[in-house]
# Entry
Amino acid sequence: MIFESHAHYDDEVFDEDREELLASLAGHGIGTVINVGASLAGCRATLELTKKYPFVYGAMGVHPGETQELSEDGVVWLREQCSQDKIVAVGEIGLDYYWKEPDPVVQKKWFERQLELAREVGLPVIIHSRDAAKDTLDMMRALRAEEMGGVVHCYSYTKELAREYLNMDFYFGIGGVITFKNAKKLKEAVAYIPLEKILLETDSPYLSPEPNRGKRNSSLNLPYVAEAVAELKGVSSEEVVEVTRQNAERLFHLEEGHTDKTSD
Ligand code: NI
# Structure
């Protein structure tokens, strides 16, 4: 079964058919979903989804583009939610200089605070980094993110930078972009990164792979991503599905017989 490591099923574009869609995933080979919070409201909705669906786990965090809403009270609330049963990561957190909104100074402040939160609660992090390669890596090093571990979601940087994240023992979230014809740099990076450090993700509803590019994305498109990774790695897509599932279960502490995240 495919492990979907990054989706936003709380997004309003799923309001019309969320229940049907989520109910259909298992029949299409999708076994587990991490629903990732991107705002405080998104985190609340994520908690609801984890309670409603046995196969949905959650991450609690505020996306860099939403950090203007954060305050120390917000972080206290996030910390409380992190102790709930099916919350397995802090994220998505990071820096986004493509949209320099809010100001990078604000983004950095709350990235640092949420990295500290991950350390406090002992959870791995889900990193969002866009056009902010240097600052992201500098901050993660300064805050010793390798001690928390985590995944760089929707990895979009070079193979050289991938080496730096591998040195920190991080994972790489690979999604629909890998199927795009012009994704040369990413294809080089994925060819380089060991399969044991790759997670499959969609970032639904965004970044739909070929042949559904431009449409609303869902975990149902993950076989296209698995196929593209398999081609680059010279293995079967079944192997990609199996190894990336094991990777995600290891990172998020969901190994069989080890489902209570507090037990280790
Ligand atoms: Ni996302």
Q: What stands out?
A: The longest helix spans residues 104-121. The mean pLDDT is 96. The beta strands are 2-7, 30-36, 56-60, 87-96, 125-130, 150-152, 171-174, 198-200.
